[in-house]
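Is this the right way to post C-alpha coordinates for a design question? Let me know if I should format differently. Anyway, here goes:
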Protein backbone atom coordinates (compact mmCIF):
# COMPACT_ATOMS: atom_id res chain seq x y z
CA UNK A 1 0.00 0.00 0.00
CA UNK A 2 1.20 3.49 -0.86
CA UNK A 3 2.61 5.59 2.06
CA UNK A 4 2.22 9.38 1.97
CA UNK A 5 4.40 11.60 4.17
CA UNK A 6 1.45 13.91 5.00
CA UNK A 7 -2.26 14.34 4.35
CA UNK A 8 -4.84 17.10 4.67
CA UNK A 9 -8.46 16.09 5.22
CA UNK A 10 -10.60 17.10 2.24
CA UNK A 11 -14.13 16.56 0.86
CA UNK A 12 -13.25 13.03 -0.34
CA UNK A 13 -12.23 11.91 3.16
CA UNK A 14 -14.35 8.97 4.36
CA UNK A 15 -12.52 7.57 7.40
CA UNK A 16 -9.13 7.07 9.03
CA UNK A 17 -7.77 4.73 11.67
CA UNK A 18 -4.46 4.41 13.48
CA UNK A 19 -2.15 1.57 12.50
CA UNK A 20 1.30 0.49 13.66
CA UNK A 21 3.87 -0.18 10.95
CA UNK A 22 6.35 -3.06 11.15
CA UNK A 23 8.69 -0.91 13.28
CA UNK A 24 5.97 0.01 15.78
CA UNK A 25 5.56 3.59 14.56
CA UNK A 26 2.00 4.91 14.51
CA UNK A 27 0.71 5.62 11.01
CA UNK A 28 -2.79 6.16 9.66
CA UNK A 29 -4.87 4.13 7.24
CA UNK A 30 -6.95 6.66 5.26
CA UNK A 31 -9.93 5.85 3.07
CA UNK A 32 -11.18 8.39 0.56
CA UNK A 33 -14.11 7.89 -1.82
CA UNK A 34 -11.90 6.56 -4.61
CA UNK A 35 -8.63 5.46 -2.96
CA UNK A 36 -7.02 3.97 0.14
CA UNK A 37 -3.52 4.70 1.42
CA UNK A 38 -1.30 5.02 4.49
CA UNK A 39 0.02 8.27 5.95
CA UNK A 40 3.23 8.45 7.96
CA UNK A 41 1.51 10.38 10.79
CA UNK A 42 -0.92 9.52 13.59
CA UNK A 43 -4.64 10.35 13.17
CA UNK A 44 -4.35 13.17 15.72
CA UNK A 45 -1.38 14.65 13.85
CA UNK A 46 -3.39 14.55 10.61
CA UNK A 47 -6.35 16.22 12.30
CA UNK A 48 -4.18 18.91 13.87
CA UNK A 49 -2.29 19.65 10.63
CA UNK A 50 -5.54 19.74 8.63
CA UNK A 51 -7.09 22.22 11.06
CA UNK A 52 -3.87 24.27 11.28
CA UNK A 53 -3.80 24.59 7.49
CA UNK A 54 -6.77 26.95 7.74
CA UNK A 55 -5.51 28.85 10.78
CA UNK A 56 -6.92 26.98 13.80
CA UNK A 57 -5.73 24.11 15.97
CA UNK A 58 -7.15 20.81 17.19
CA UNK A 59 -7.37 21.85 20.83
CA UNK A 60 -9.38 24.95 19.93
CA UNK A 61 -11.66 22.92 17.64
CA UNK A 62 -12.37 20.44 20.45
CA UNK A 63 -13.03 23.24 22.95
CA UNK A 64 -15.42 24.93 20.51
CA UNK A 65 -17.24 21.66 19.90
CA UNK A 66 -17.65 21.04 23.63
CA UNK A 67 -18.83 24.60 24.20
CA UNK A 68 -21.49 24.25 21.50
CA UNK A 69 -22.62 20.67 22.20
CA UNK A 70 -21.96 20.42 25.92
CA UNK A 71 -19.25 18.34 27.50
CA UNK A 72 -19.95 15.23 25.41
CA UNK A 73 -17.73 12.15 25.25
CA UNK A 74 -16.04 11.60 21.86
CA UNK A 75 -17.07 15.00 20.54
CA UNK A 76 -17.04 15.70 16.80
CA UNK A 77 -14.56 18.21 15.38
CA UNK A 78 -15.07 20.84 12.70
CA UNK A 79 -11.99 20.33 10.51
CA UNK A 80 -12.77 22.85 7.79
CA UNK A 81 -15.54 25.44 8.19
CA UNK A 82 -15.23 26.55 4.55
CA UNK A 83 -15.80 23.08 3.06
CA UNK A 84 -18.14 22.09 5.96
CA UNK A 85 -16.03 19.05 6.92
CA UNK A 86 -16.84 17.57 10.34
CA UNK A 87 -15.36 14.32 11.64
CA UNK A 88 -16.19 12.24 14.70
CA UNK A 89 -14.38 9.46 16.60
CA UNK A 90 -15.72 6.06 17.60
CA UNK A 91 -13.73 6.05 20.85
CA UNK A 92 -11.59 8.44 22.81
CA UNK A 93 -9.24 10.28 20.45
CA UNK A 94 -6.27 8.98 22.45
CA UNK A 95 -7.35 5.34 22.06
CA UNK A 96 -5.29 3.56 19.40
CA UNK A 97 -8.40 1.71 18.17
CA UNK A 98 -10.23 4.97 17.47
CA UNK A 99 -11.64 5.39 13.96
CA UNK A 100 -12.53 8.85 12.63
CA UNK A 101 -15.49 9.16 10.24
CA UNK A 102 -16.86 11.85 7.95
CA UNK A 103 -20.67 11.73 8.38
CA UNK A 104 -21.15 13.30 4.93
CA UNK A 105 -20.08 9.98 3.36
CA UNK A 106 -22.16 7.68 5.60
CA UNK A 107 -25.31 6.83 3.69
CA UNK A 108 -26.74 4.01 5.80
CA UNK A 109 -26.14 2.24 9.09
CA UNK A 110 -27.63 -1.01 10.29
CA UNK A 111 -27.22 -3.49 13.11
CA UNK A 112 -25.36 -6.70 12.39
CA UNK A 113 -24.76 -9.15 15.29
CA UNK A 114 -24.46 -6.38 17.92
CA UNK A 115 -22.12 -4.46 15.61
CA UNK A 116 -22.75 -1.61 13.20
CA UNK A 117 -22.63 -2.04 9.45
CA UNK A 118 -21.85 1.20 7.60
CA UNK A 119 -22.57 1.85 3.93
CA UNK A 120 -20.58 4.70 2.41
CA UNK A 121 -21.41 7.07 -0.43
CA UNK A 122 -19.08 5.11 -2.73
CA UNK A 123 -21.11 1.91 -2.14
CA UNK A 124 -18.52 0.19 0.06
CA UNK A 125 -19.42 -1.20 3.47
CA UNK A 126 -17.61 -1.67 6.75
CA UNK A 127 -18.55 -3.33 10.02
CA UNK A 128 -17.33 -1.86 13.30
CA UNK A 129 -17.58 -3.03 16.91
CA UNK A 130 -20.07 -0.46 18.18
CA UNK A 131 -23.75 -0.51 19.03
CA UNK A 132 -25.94 0.96 16.32
CA UNK A 133 -27.65 3.41 18.69
CA UNK A 134 -24.32 4.72 20.00
CA UNK A 135 -22.87 5.12 16.52
CA UNK A 136 -25.99 6.85 15.22
CA UNK A 137 -25.97 9.31 18.13
CA UNK A 138 -22.36 10.23 17.24
CA UNK A 139 -23.43 10.86 13.64
CA UNK A 140 -26.28 13.08 14.88
CA UNK A 141 -23.93 15.09 17.13
CA UNK A 142 -21.55 15.61 14.18
CA UNK A 143 -24.43 16.75 11.98
CA UNK A 144 -25.65 19.02 14.78
CA UNK A 145 -22.19 20.62 15.07
CA UNK A 146 -22.10 21.19 11.31
CA UNK A 147 -25.56 22.76 11.42
CA UNK A 148 -24.73 24.96 14.44
CA UNK A 149 -21.60 26.34 12.75
CA UNK A 150 -23.18 26.82 9.32
CA UNK A 151 -23.08 30.45 8.31
CA UNK A 152 -20.75 31.39 11.14
CA UNK A 153 -17.76 33.48 10.32
CA UNK A 154 -14.56 32.06 11.74
CA UNK A 155 -11.48 34.13 12.11
CA UNK A 156 -8.33 34.22 14.16
CA UNK A 157 -7.02 37.31 15.83
CA UNK A 158 -3.35 37.32 16.59
CA UNK A 159 -2.15 39.80 19.16
CA UNK A 160 1.05 41.52 18.29
CA UNK A 161 3.25 43.54 20.56
CA UNK A 162 4.65 46.68 19.13
CA UNK A 163 7.70 48.21 20.62
CA UNK A 164 8.00 51.92 20.51
CA UNK A 165 11.28 53.78 20.63
CA UNK A 166 11.64 57.09 22.23
CA UNK A 167 12.45 59.77 19.74
CA UNK A 168 15.66 61.56 20.32
CA UNK A 169 15.58 65.35 19.94
Amino acid sequence: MFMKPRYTINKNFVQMAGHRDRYGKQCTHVIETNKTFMVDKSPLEILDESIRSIGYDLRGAIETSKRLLGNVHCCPVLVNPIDRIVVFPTKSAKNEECVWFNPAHIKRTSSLNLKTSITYSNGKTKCIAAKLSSFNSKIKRAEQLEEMTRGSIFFTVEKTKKRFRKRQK
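Format looks fine. Someone answered above. Worth noting: The longest helix spans residues 132-149. The beta strands are 3-4, 13-20, 26-32, 36-39, 77-80, 85-89, 99-101, 106-112, 115-120, 125-128.
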